[in-house]
Input
Amino acid sequence: MTSGTSEALLAAIVLLGSCVQWLTGMGFALVAVPALVLLLGPAQGVVLANCAAGAISVVGLAGGRRRVRPATMVPLCVAAACTVPAGTWLTRRLPEPALLLVMGGLVTVAVLLVMRGVRIPALRGTRGAVVAGAAGGFMNSAAGVGGPPVSLYAVNAGWTVREFVPNAQFYGVVVNAFSVAANGVPELSGSQWTWVAAAMTTGALLGRALAGRLPEHRARMLVLGLALAGGVTAVAKGAWEW
Output
């Protein structure tokens, strides 16, 4: 694959992830991580997803910070901070095929649980926030995908989309900051960073333009369908290379 083709693919992945993140409040990692991992490798794919998702969450939070629920988000974020190092430790010790299997498997299982809207009594109240935060922190640093446990918590707490989005953005800022601190920043060339920045900006503009036109249910199913396809592909590639 030529460098130009690789950069174009990188930009397309980031653009799509950014667009769905603006549509649904959380979705960049679900959509982008499997493809980034296949393109850049597990380590670089995860840290790029952490950086990009965190940056998008910072911008998205600016307009909804007054709707953040501190009583819920504090235990979520503290629990996530405690498990981020465990996820980083795992990624640094597994060979690449095993990492692809782990990441693809986590994405696939998480998506299936979210799609089914699983009701789990343990994901309610403060205890549920701690469980969801701990699972999300580990998954975010290990596989770049920390959103599904928070989504499941929101389902079990009966949150509306309006309640979920700003809290998801707040969580994204915190957990990705911890993950970047633990994993470092991606080793990209100057031209790759330029493509990534341009794609994030374009994706944000597209996502905001489509937000009022695309029905919420269709947007959600599109995100989950793309994420499921990517997760299965990562599992298949890991199994093939094992």
User: Anything to note?
Assistant: The mean pLDDT is 82. The first helix runs from residue 3 to 24. The chain is about 80% helix and 0% strand. The CA atoms of residues 36 and 45 lie 5 Å apart.
